[in-house]
Amino acid sequence: MNSVLEIKNLSKNYGRIKALDDLSLEINEGEIFGLLGPNGSGKTTTLGIVLDVLQPSSGLYKWFGQPPSSESRKKIGSILETPCFYPYLSAYRNLKIVAEIKECGNNRIDEVLEWVGLKDRSDDSFRTFSLGMKQRLAIAAALLPDPPVLILDEPTNGLDPTGIAEIRDLIQQISERGKTLILASHLLDEVQKVCSHFAILRKGKKIHSGTVEDVLNSKNSIEVAAENKEQLHSALVEWPFKQGIKESGNKYIVDINGEVNSTDLNKYLLENKVVVSHLTQVKTNLEQEFLKILSEHDA
């Protein structure tokens, strides 16, 4: 895969406060990369530096394998703050002003408005838009120059469930068109639903990075119960695919790897004359792993 953004040993100090501490990351073409972390973890600082809004105290970064430059910056669309447009101008007029500033022409305005679902509101003033519509217009503005990379800082912040779902769908559509997306968020469920890769920051340090799929598949479990609990336990102990067993009320929770599932366990138990009364597979989620990783680094 081609590297889009490479960060090496990046630090940012504000006096004695380290907002970013020796951060190294690599983001490749086609990824939807999520930066996760509590407030003050360094997410926005990282994005500010790679967008040349902030100067790092030390370290370096490269865009598309080259040192940052005005040319590489033109290949990046971004939204770092709350959407800001002229309130009494229409969506179309606002994007026309953005196109003039970015020197990219007006030929894509209708296309990006259609893309973000605002074509039928193109003549309406910005002040009449909901927060979700304002966010979508900001994404349209970022997409005007047709950049290969889009950076979004907390893209669903403050939105209601409908607005969150709309932005989530839009992010997935943008990715399907071949764009690389980098987003900072504290909404773990949303990151789990849209991101392919992620990194967790805490107090300016990277404490974990990897693929969302690997985390979700790293540890699955099955809840199982039967009328004869002792017989069930004896059979579970002998099952070669178990990774651990723990009791939870009248059920057992059996940790497994990705090689087997609840169907395999049910078949095994039936072969051993154990009839289950409850059987369900439970997969881990990103929130559980996020809290686990944070707690390990707090210990």
In terms of topology, how is this protein built?
Blueprint: E1 3-14, E2 17-28, E3 32-36, H1 43-50, E4 58-63, H2 70-73, E5 76-79, H3 91-102, H4 109-115, H5 131-143, E6 149-153, H6 161-176, E7 180-185, H7 188-194, E8 197-202, E9 205-211, H8 212-218, E10 220-226, H9 229-238, E11 244-248, E12 251-256, H10 262-271, E13 276-283, H11 286-298
Parallel strand pairs: 3-7, 3-8, 5-6, 6-7
Antiparallel strand pairs: 1-2, 1-4, 8-9, 10-12, 10-13, 11-12
General description of the model:
Helix 4 (109-115) packs across helix 5 (131-143) and helix 5 (131-143) packs parallel to helix 6. The chain is built from eleven helices and 13 strands. The chain has two domains: 3-215, Rossmann fold (3-Layer(aba) Sandwich), CATH 3.40.50; 220-283, Alpha-Beta Plaits (2-Layer Sandwich), CATH 3.30.70.100. It has helices at 43-50, 70-73, 91-102, 109-115, 131-143, 161-176, 188-194, 212-218, 229-238, 262-271, 286-298, and strands spanning 3-14, 17-28, 32-36, 58-63, 76-79, 149-153, 180-185, 197-202, 205-211, 220-226, 244-248, 251-256, 276-283. Strand 11 (244-248) and strand 12 (251-256) form a beta hairpin.
What key attributes describe this structure?
single chain; about 300 residues; alpha/beta; Rossmann fold; Alpha-Beta Plaits; 2 domains; 4-stranded antiparallel beta sheet
What is the CATH topology descriptor of the largest domain? Rossmann fold
Q: What fraction, in percent, of the residue positions are helical?
A: 25-40%
Residue fraction in strands: 25-35%
Largest sheet: 6 strands, mixed
What top-tier CATH class of the largest domain fits best?
Alpha Beta
What is the N-to-C order of secondary-structure elements (H for helix, E for strand)?
A: EEEHEHEHHHEHEHEEHEHEEHEH
- What is the radius of gyration computed over CA atoms, rounded to a whole number of angstroms? 24 Å
- Largest sheet strand order: 5-6-7-3-8-9
- Structural class by sheet pairing and helices: alpha/beta
Number of strands: 13
